[in-house]
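Re: the request from the purification team.
They wanted to know what the chain is likely to look like in 3D before they choose a buffer screen. I agreed to run a prediction and write the result into the notebook, where they can find it.
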Amino acid sequence: MGKKYRISVSGKTYEVEVEEVDGSSVQTQNMARTAPAPQPVVSSVSTPAPATSPKVQPEAPSGQSDLTAPIPGNVFKIHAKVGDTVKAGDLLLVIEAMKMENEISAEADGVISDIPVKEGDNIAGGDVLVRFE
């Protein structure tokens, strides 16, 4: 009998059992899928994630005026426009990655000066999504 572990992948929690085979290879078996566990938001601002899609907060150093993509994917929907005044936590856009919609929200209050991406764009992690004044 192997060791049992609980892991979280994209907001879903799984129980797996791991056993050593032939001394060097590892075999995993999906035991049971449990309800999604509450996931902390990756940000300096803590916002609870909605049940339907995870909120991904890009991490940015203090004073940075660019909001960058935390993950690679496709820009699915843009909810803001240049000139909008936003508050921390306001939904700005949605990135589709691995068939999941990830909501990207403002980290702080500000005014949008540029959105260098458009819906349908393929983006890499670290690409600038929104610039603030």
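For the purification team: Residues 24-31, 40-52, 57-64 have pLDDT under 50 and may be disordered.
Please add any questions underneath this entry.
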